[in-house]
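From the pipeline queue, job 12 of 40. The input is one protein chain; the requested action is below.

Action: predict structure.
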Amino acid sequence: MISLNNATLMHGELVLLRDANLAIHNGQKIGVIGRNGSGKSSLFACLLGQLALDKGDLSMPEGLRCAHMRQETEASAASAVDYVIDGDAGFRAIERQLLAAEARGDGAAIAHLHSEMDKIGGYDIRYRAMQLLSGLGFTAEQFDNPVSSFSGGWRIRLNLAAALMAPSDLLLLDEPTNHLDLEATLWLEQWLKRYQGTLLIISHDRSFLDEVIAYVVSVEQQKLTLYRGNYSSFETQRAERLAQEQALLEKQQRRVAEIEDFVRRFRAKATKARQAQSRLKELDRMQLIAPAHIDSPFQFEFAPPERLPAELLALDKLSVGYTAPLVSNIRLVIRDTTRIGLLGFNGCGKSTLLRTIAGDLAPLAGELRTSKYLQVGYFAQHQVDVLDQRASPMLLLQRLDPSAREQTLRDFLGGFDFRGERINETIENFSGGEKARLALALVVWQRPNLLLLDEPTNHLDLEMRHALTVALQGFTGALVIVSHDRHLLSNTVDEFHSIHHGRCQEFDGDLHDYEKWMQENSKGSTGTAARPQEAGAERKGDRKEQRQQSAATRQQLAPLKNEIRRLEQRLEKLHAELAQVEAKLSDASLYEEARKKDLTTLLQQQARLKSESDTVELQWLEKSEQLEAM
């Protein structure tokens, strides 16, 4: 057992932990949660012996083997596979001793060392290293490339592979998914589920945490609080506790009302049964856990676009890429209500497509037609790198809108937790998370009617990710997003499009369906995988027979589809009428004695509209389920 007793830990004059206690038992898988700067990484440094407690005791079992993921990698001439093997220090030690014994001709030592090598599985270590590299997205051609040839993100993957290679009883991982795509993240989940030792993870990917951990350690008010369950369970438990604190009740009720509004608006727009039901469950759950985020320092929303034309842009036979097309023959219309999540293996062209839509990259072929009122808000993967490092948050906003009042800008920046003199500091010394928040703030301020977001959650902590999710739910324009954050995707998009083998098509299913398809059709397969749109479909007869069957199916489904469209239109109309009635009910004069009759009439209308909305929504769900089954 690892135990912290009355532990106090400081960073300069800042107290991170004060009289904190924690017991970690063998085999536990724990997510370490807390705001940026709360002391999570410092806690890891203590467990690694790199940082001493200022007060209190840390007890760890003698001989405990500890592995951790380094955050930086120096350029090296060593190959990727050798760098990963270096993670097993015991193997390298035996290897050196064996070379020395062979050099001096010591037969007894050579025999003993070969036996030791066999005990630790040293003879298949290169194969195991290649398995780790492959799982984390490296191709066979890259295994022997020098470390110096890889970019920063890929070097972090090498660090992760080296940590997984090391034999360990305690494994500490700090943001292991930050530079992983969805495929590599799913592989890592499975690897960590099989890990037999004690695992501590710092991560801002809640879906990843939900899959891997069984406990949460939350750094709260300089204490360490242990919760049983995954991250979703932690949110629920914390919400229940905070909901009992009377001082927060009023703010909680306002927050829950906002979430209910998002649920109502989405129900009016939902068009796909499987995705709609999945999303409604997520949104209903968000109402329950809203109190867990009451004390979040982030509170912002997207203002309605100044103009929102029905059709924002259209792609007709578009090909995107650089010297050669990555994706070809793209046909897509983005309307005011479009909310798309782009899926696909790493390097398939998702970011390239977003760059082309944003106007940063010219299409190779085809046509891209845009509305004259199109206003794009584009967040690129490396947006933080192009910020003026010598400017302050206030100055960057003033450059966008010189006429804006200073107090308005201060209030807006406060929603992103830039407060006081912080708003006038140059951003060169800001953390990656702070720069990412600022880059998002600049996009939000511009009031776009089309949002293009490419991995917007990189560097963001859990509270900021939650705030972004809520803000995107309230966004009234169109959205196209690339993200490996499955929780964000599940809660903000209405449809998925996949890019595979150079084609971009709608994916008929939800994220769970896509994860199954991805695991079955990984890049390590023979390369003959079916397109995502065909995953799970049984082979039919020849093309003529298939066309005949498709025509018969369309004819059979037409009445049901028409009925669903009719119900959607009715539901949208009811919600519009309900919004008008509730707007009238917000008039304070309505509650005066002289207007009692008007109030009664409006309350009756509100009750009728709510009841009718519930009935129509139930009919819509039933019809949608029938369509899904057929």
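Job complete. The CA atoms of residues 355 and 361 lie 6 Å apart.
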